Amino acid sequence: MTHFLEPNRIPIFQIGDCLLLTIQVDLEDRMIMTLKDDLAERIAKTHAKGVLIDISALDVVDSFIGRMLANISAIARILDAATVIVGMRPAVAITLVELGMSLQGVRTALDVDRGMELIRRESSEGAERLHEA
Amino acid sequence: MRPEAGRPEAGRGENSAETIPIRTGADVSRVRRSVATAMAVIGASRIETTRMVTAASELARNTLDYGGGGEVLIAVVGRMTRRKVELVFTDHGPGISDMSKALTDGYSTGGGLGLGLSGARRLCKEFEIRSVPGEGTVVKVASWTERP
After folding, report:
1. Which structural domain, as residue segments, surrounds residue A75?
2. How far apart are CA B68 and CA B43, in angstroms?
3. Nearest residue of A to residue B32, measured between CA atoms
4. What CATH number is given to the structural domain containing B38?
5. Does any CB of chain B come closer than 8 Å to the CB of residue A74?
6. How far apart are CA B37 and CA B43, in angstroms?
7. pLDDT at B3
8. Residue in B closest to A94 by C-alpha
9. For residue B60, is it within any domain?
10. Nearest-CA residue of chain B relative to A30?
11. How many domains does chain A have?
């Protein structure tokens, strides 16, 4: 567990079968690479069904961070976990669209509670489909 | 914390200019912070600030990734209600050989999304670009506030 306290790493918390991480700092390239690795490993290890990424502290999301969020979401999907981006600021949403990034394929929710609900609903629907088949 | 990172009272700060070198990813963060401070000086709204800082972030990353590094001049110019924030990004990289392609959404010679230049152009109120192949690129953008 000690590595979660390292200053250049973003801590990943587990709540039930969800992983939660909060992006609070101005992300640098190196941190993003570490985050991808850490998260992929944690999903595989914990069999998490969902990943919640809280970006409420970010006042700017440029195409670089936008691409990182889309990448993380794609990696998680292949590992059978749904990603929900929560807490995007209104000004960030407007700017992303004007920039030309619609974050297709990335789900969003207004806050952590709603994001969690979305993941719960999806994973239970998935389980039902599996059961019917 | 750097001294200019404070939040001066909206619309009352002095005109200023500052040059920031762009050599690493950490410099791109520094550019974002300084542009946010400059927008606060002219009393810009949250969305106006977010647009300009996002554009600055895209252009600084271009300077770093495609221009091989360079610098940006961040200036608050003009008087009273006509004040604006001006950014001039300069690099001495390979330059852009096909400008109309470079300004097209989705076109990239690197590994990016190709939204940097075209996106920044949409986010700023003024946008000018000059590039000489083999000599480098200069991008000048400006924004102001519509707030009364």
Report:
1. 2-132
2. 33
3. A60
4. 3.30.565.10
5. no
6. 10
7. 42
8. B47
9. yes
10. B25
11. 1
Q: Do A59 and B105 touch (CB under 8 A)?
A: no
Number of domains in chain B: 1
Q: Among the listed ranges A124-133, B57-66, B126-135, which one has the minimum average pLDDT value? A: A124-133
| Across A13-20, average pLDDT | 93
Q: How far apart are CA B67 and CA B131, in angstroms?
A: 11
Residues of A in contact with B29 (CB under 8 A): 26, 28
Q: Is the pLDDT of residue B2 over 50?
A: no
Q: Which CATH number goes with the domain that contains A104?
A: 3.30.750.24
Alpha-carbon gap, residue B16 to B3, rounded angstroms: 13
- Beta-sheet strands, E only, within A78-119: 82-86, 107-109
Residue B135 lies in a domain: yes
List, in sequence order, every residue forming a beta bridge with B88; answer none if it has no partner: B73, B140
pLDDT band at B4 (very low <50, low <70, confident <90, very high): very low
Examine the pLDDT at B51 and tell me if it is beyond 80: yes
The whole-model pTM stands at 0.86
Q: Where are the beta strands (DSSP E) in chain A?
A: 12-15, 18-22, 50-54, 82-86, 107-109
Per DSSP, the three-state class of A62 is coil
A91 contacts in chain B (CB < 8 Å):
46-47, 49-50
CB A105 within 8 A of CB A75: no
Give the C-alpha separation, A116 to A130, whole Å: 21
Cβ B120 vs Cβ B59: under 8 Å = yes
Q: Give the Cα separation of B80 and B12 in Å (integer).
A: 9
Query: Is the predicted pLDDT of residue B7 greater than 60, yes or no?
Result: no
Neighbouring-strand partners of residue A50:
A18, A82
- Distance between B77 CA and the closest CA of chain A, angstroms: 24
Give residue B126's domain range. 22-144
Please indicate whether, in this complex, the C-beta atoms of A28 and B29 are within 8 angstroms of each other: yes
